[in-house]
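Is this the right way to post structure tokens for a design question? Let me know if I should format differently. Anyway, here goes:
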């Protein structure tokens, strides 16, 4: 009766690439939450990616979500909603595809920095910040604790989902 798809792509910090993240939460065969983002690994997304993000046609969802305080790690283009019907579910899945397509088109344009460069170290620190903030998600911890126990939830969050 409860399903979660949690997917985060952490890029090699040598590249100025955003963190792709998507969560789909399904309860009793209906979406109860859906979020997708290309999160910055610096103070903001690269300018070339921002112009592409602005060109996206975001659907109007009936029930947008409110980001928690720790959600400052997300970009201004994060989409967090509760799809209310099958049409909104399909629109959200298409939106995921658009975010992935943008990321893929951006991949071919990015050049690597040296592994010990300040830019690489900054991006690594932003990735660590992303993980640290995600660990503050009480809803995730609560759901995992309910189904698997607090010890398992702690280990899973800290050593699998967001191992800094």
């Amino acid at each position: 009766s409860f399903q979660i798809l949690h997917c985060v792509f952490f890029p090699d910090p040598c590249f100025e690439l955003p963190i792709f993240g998507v969560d789909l939460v399904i309860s009793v065969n209906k979406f109860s939450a859906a979020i997708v983002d290309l999160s910055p690994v610096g103070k903001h997304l690269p300018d070339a990616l921002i112009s592409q993000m602005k060109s996206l046609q975001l659907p109007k969802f009936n029930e947008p979500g409110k980001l928690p305080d720790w959600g400052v790690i997300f970009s201004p283009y994060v989409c967090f909603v509760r799809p209310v019907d099958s049409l909104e579910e399909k629109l959200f899945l298409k939106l995921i595809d658009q975010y992935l397509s943008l990321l893929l088109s951006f991949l071919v344009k990015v050049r690597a920095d040296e592994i010990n460069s300040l830019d690489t170290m900054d991006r690594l620190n932003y990735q660590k910040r992303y993980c640290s903030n995600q660990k503050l998600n009480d809803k995730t911890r609560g759901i995992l604790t309910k189904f698997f126990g607090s010890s398992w939830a702690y280990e899973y969050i800290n050593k699998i989902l967001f191992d800094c």
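Format looks fine. Someone answered above. Worth noting: Helices lie at 47-54, 86-107, 118-134, 138-148, 150-161. The mean pLDDT is 94.
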